[in-house]
Amino acid sequence: MRHHWILDPAITFLNHGSFGACPRIVLEAQMRLREEMEREPVRFLWREIEGRIDSARAALARFLNAGVDGLGFVTNATTAVNAVVRSLELKPGDELLTTSHGYNACRNVLAEAARCANARVVVAEVPFPISDSTVVKSAVLNAVTARTRFVLLDHITSPTALIFPVEELVAELESRGVRVMVDGAHAPGTLPLNLAALGASYYTGNLHKWVCAPKGAAFIYAKEECREGLHPATLSHGYNTPRAGRSHFHDEFDWQGTMDVTSWLSVPAAISFCEGLLPGGFPALMQRNHEIVTAARRMLCERLGIEAPCPENMIGSMATLPLPDRFQNGAGESRAVISRFDPLQTTLFEKHGIEMPLIRFGPMGRRWFRISAHAHNVPGDYERLAGVLSGEL
Predict the structure, then answer these.
(1) Local confidence band at 333 (pLDDT 50, 70, 90 cut-offs)
(2) Residue pair 192/156 in contact by the 8 Å Cβ criterion
(3) Which of 102, 213, 314, 360 is deepest in the core (most CB within 10 A)?
C-alpha cells in the first residue's frame, strides 16, 4: 500500500511515530482547501470558518466517541498540554505528577508552571524493561500525595512505546479529586478511543501520526466541568468577544490567530482514507499495524539476540527494543553531551537509507531503537533492518 504515500522509495521508513506521513489523497484534499482559501481569504477564514470547523469537528467527534462541545482543534499535543497546564491556578507547594516515560517537551511545560507558582514536579519512576501494566499503576498511585493537583499521563509513551493503563488510572485519580490529562499523542489511529467514557479531565492527541492528517492537526478534549478557565496557549479575539450561539470554549480554540487551518479541515479526509484502506476499516488497520510490529519485534529479538522489554499487549503500532551489547558504547553519558542524532542513527540513514529513531533511556543511558508500523510498511522493511544491525548487510 506504499503507493498511497509520497515517501522516498530509497528510504526504508520505520519512523512513522515521529511525524507521521500524509497520504497523497489527503495532501490533495488539503491543497484544494488551500487554493480555495487563497482565492478569497476573508470569505474562507472569516465568513465561512465556523461552519467548516464545525463540520470537521463533528467527523472527529464520531471517530473519538467524544461530544463536540468539549472538542477543539490545536496544532499538536504539546500545544494542548501548554493550554491546560498554563491555565491551572497553582499554589505554592502544589504537586504536578508525571512519569519517567513522559515526553520531554511536556515535562518542560510542567517544570515552567511549577517554577512560576513555586510548586513541584513529581516524577513517578516506571521501570523499563517492565513485566506488566500493574507496575505502571502502582508506580503512579504510590507517587500521589495530598498535595497532588494534576497528573499528566501518556497513553502511549514516546521513548518506550508502552501502552499505559490510563482507564484504570484515570478512574482512580479522578475519584480522588485529582485532575488528569492524558497525552495521547500516539493513541488516535493506534487504539480505539472512547473519550466520553474515559472520564479524564483533559485529553489530547495528534492526528498527523497514525490518522495520517497533515502536520498541524491535533485536538484537545475537556469534560464539561473543566472547560471554564481553560484557555488556548495563544489568546486571541475569543477571550473577550463572544459570538452568538458559540460556547466560550469554541470561541477561544476555534480562532487562535491567523493560521493555516486547512490541516484541521483535512481531518475528515484523513479518517476516511484510513477507514477505506482495509475492508474492516480502522479496527482492521489498527490490528494489521499491531501484528506487523509484533512480528517484527519477535524476528528482531531472535536475529539480534536481544530480549523484548515488555509483553506484546503493552504495545500498539510501535515497539522499542534494546540495541545489542556491541552497540552500547558510551552508555552512561549525560544528555548534555549527546548530539540530537545518535551517530548510529545517522549511519543507518546516510549509509543504509533506514529512517529510525535511536533513544537513550534510563539512568545508565542505555541505547534503544524504536520501530513503527503503518500501512506503507511490510515485513521486508524490518528484515532489512535486522540484516544491517546484525552485520549481514
Answers:
(1) low
(2) no
(3) 213
